[in-house]
Amino acid sequence: MNPYTLTLLRHGDIDHDGRLVGRLDLALNERGRRQLAASWQRINALAPVTSIASSPLKRCREFAVQQALAGGVPLKLDERLAECDFGAWDGMALAELAARHPDWSQRLAEGSLDAPGGENFDTFRTRVLAGFAGWMSEARGSHRVLVSHGGVITVLLAELLGTGFNVARLLTVQRGGFAQLSILDGHPAYLLRLEPPCAD
């Protein structure tokens, strides 16, 4: 199989009011739309996009659909590429969450978080990797772009770069920013660039 470029684009800013977002279906705010538009210009300038996949959550889906239609590029929406389900913690104020569960952010960083009524890390990782593998089996072309979430992108970076989740979290992809990798089946992925949002 020929090598291809994979771009992992994180959705832009949203009005989350200091809450844990998870599966809340929030739209991008104006700043978030500007961030993604600018990043998309940069991504296309590096290499024309040939295939797009996206989380079905609004903050990813609306932009992905817009770009797929504008560019005539195949698009796959897949529930398996959505953010982690934090169950009872979804929508909770981060300050309240920290007060009730002081170790929650450390457990999240370690990949050991198990929120009540939500997904444990192994379930989350398994579904993300299954969704990604499904897309890769269908995707064509030399530049494939996934529009998704911080947790999903970290899982994929850990898998593709052969490192632990806690290490991959150090490669923070900011909202509206992206990571780009060169991939050849049977070989370790190579990180080409890690870029912050292209616009504020």
TrEMBL record:
InterPro entries: His_Pase_superF_clade-1 (IPR013078), His_PPase_superfam (IPR029033), PGM_Phosphatase (IPR050275). Pfam families: His_Phos_1. GO terms for molecular function: phosphatase activity. GO terms for cellular component: cytoplasm. This is Probable phosphoglycerate mutase.
